[in-house]
Amino acid sequence: MTNSFDVTVARIAEDNGWSRLRRARDFVDAWPSYVDQCSRGYDMNIYEYENDLSVRGMIDQLLNNEDLARFQSSPISVTE
Length: 80
Description:
mainly alpha; 64% helix
């Protein structure tokens, strides 16, 4: 069952042009992969690099979003 946190994240992601990543977990999972690629030597072009880096920008937007701030006092697990 989808909770209102997930629905809110999906709406924010869609409003920001994200179609593939739509859950908080998706963004959290994508970031370490990007960091790993960079530590091994990023072998894609600059456009892919900037696209992959934009995941961090979206994480920042989610962390600072007023609509999601109301969930701050609720226990939220990104490990599910």
